[in-house]
Amino acid sequence: MPLDKQTQLYDPSKIRILVVDDEPSIVKFLEFGLRREGYAVQTAADGVEAIAKARDAMPHVCILDVMMPGPDGFEVCKMLKRMGHVAVILLTARDAIDDRVKGLMGGADDYVVKPFSFEELLARIHARVRSQFPQLLQQQEIGPFLIDDARKEIAFHGNPLKLSSTEYELLRYLVQNHGLVLSKAQILDHVWGYDFNGQDNIVEVYISALREKLGDRDRTLIRTLRGQGYRVDLP
């Protein structure tokens, strides 16, 4: 049964999943089920093929069998982790505690034992995406802010803010990068685009408008760092 979209909170078509298993029946089962859920899926039958496809596709999630010809799942997991940011879910019939510990110590993010429930695997994929790829979520709760990308809305302490499309993009960018100093140039590039030809004081104008809507008159939420830029400080 597909996950409820309100529970899922992200667009599965944006999630790249690599399924690696030397059992064709399992590969077909997972590929069919995950594609039906809307995920972008690639498959591999062994570790060598998995590494080659991972280099090209850069998956967000890899569902990885342990017992395979050539490099086993433990070795492939280590190589994947060295290549980039990928969530690895080991899928295996070996349920010994030592194997679980070996997999997790080798960098795996989760461990599912065969036979398994497809719904449970979906829930684990969802948990990995929420934990490791929050930028892909349609809803993100960050401190007192709730960012809803699907509705293009931001709530502050549970109260929806009345924002223009530009104010939404600016506040979203600031909040998602809270704690970091963002220069005017960075803000202009991200919110207005690289080809923006207007005055950079437009950033100050929009920051002022956001402070007004947030009740941030003492400038403790959106701070100005003279000569550097702006930083959102969350409690």
TrEMBL record:
<dbReference type="GO" id="GO:0005829">
    <property type="term" value="C:cytosol"/>
</dbReference>
<keyword id="KW-0805">Transcription regulation</keyword>
<dbReference type="InterPro" id="IPR001789">
    <property type="entry name" value="Sig_transdc_resp-reg_receiver"/>
</dbReference>
<dbReference type="InterPro" id="IPR001867">
    <property type="entry name" value="OmpR/PhoB-type_DNA-bd"/>
</dbReference>
<keyword id="KW-0804">Transcription</keyword>
<dbReference type="Pfam" id="PF00072">
    <property type="entry name" value="Response_reg"/>
</dbReference>
<keyword id="KW-0597">Phosphoprotein</keyword>
<dbReference type="InterPro" id="IPR039420">
    <property type="entry name" value="WalR-like"/>
</dbReference>
<feature type="domain" description="OmpR/PhoB-type">
    <location>
        <begin position="137"/>
        <end position="234"/>
    </location>
</feature>
<keyword id="KW-0238">DNA-binding</keyword>
<feature type="DNA-binding region" description="OmpR/PhoB-type">
    <location>
        <begin position="137"/>
        <end position="234"/>
    </location>
</feature>
<feature type="modified residue" description="4-aspartylphosphate">
    <location>
        <position position="65"/>
    </location>
</feature>
<keyword id="KW-0902">Two-component regulatory system</keyword>
<dbReference type="GO" id="GO:0032993">
    <property type="term" value="C:protein-DNA complex"/>
</dbReference>
<dbReference type="Pfam" id="PF00486">
    <property type="entry name" value="Trans_reg_C"/>
</dbReference>
<dbReference type="InterPro" id="IPR036388">
    <property type="entry name" value="WH-like_DNA-bd_sf"/>
</dbReference>
<dbReference type="GO" id="GO:0006355">
    <property type="term" value="P:regulation of DNA-templated transcription"/>
</dbReference>
<dbReference type="InterPro" id="IPR011006">
    <property type="entry name" value="CheY-like_superfamily"/>
</dbReference>
<feature type="domain" description="Response regulatory">
    <location>
        <begin position="16"/>
        <end position="129"/>
    </location>
</feature>
<protein>
    <submittedName>
        <fullName>Two-component system, OmpR family, response regulator</fullName>
    </submittedName>
</protein>
<dbReference type="GO" id="GO:0000976">
    <property type="term" value="F:transcription cis-regulatory region binding"/>
</dbReference>
<dbReference type="GO" id="GO:0000156">
    <property type="term" value="F:phosphorelay response regulator activity"/>
</dbReference>
